[in-house]
């Protein structure tokens, strides 16, 4: 029989080791396989796909229509659901983000950190990533959701699925393209894009 003090310690340790779930705007946990809109907490349009030069794969940006919900996404944690069951999307855990949409591009709509853009000195978030298969070759395809106050969240690029890999760890924010005015998602040191998740 386990002493009460030891049992209390074990339960507290397990509780501390399990990240909390991410919640939607209705207060329900986010689940795998369910579609959600990612909406900026400060207002404005949701997230969508666009190409800066009509080239594939498309980039990820905020819609320029303030009332637009953007395109829905699904989340696929690296740990998987197991036995085909949905699981919670947890804070600060590796996951794929995928637009639930079709494009003219042959590439997937899974989010991926693109190559460094030397012209503007930014890392931009694009698509064309690989879903699943966590490891060194897919490190750029994994993002996390971090907490940002009560009911608010941020998106982070800081993959931990590859032990020993040297990776960037930065928040995802907005970069306004001077040529087009597009609000493109990019890694930032000057403040994240604070978001909420609304079930589609």
TrEMBL record:
One of its GO terms (molecular function) is endopeptidase inhibitor activity. It comes from the Eukaryota. The keyword tRNA-binding does not apply. Keywords: Signal. Residues 1-17 form the signal peptide. Coiled coil: none annotated. The keyword Signal applies. PANTHER family: KUNITZ TRYPSIN INHIBITOR 2 (PTHR33107), KUNITZ TRYPSIN INHIBITOR 5 (PTHR33107:SF5). This is Uncharacterized protein. It comes from Linum tenue.
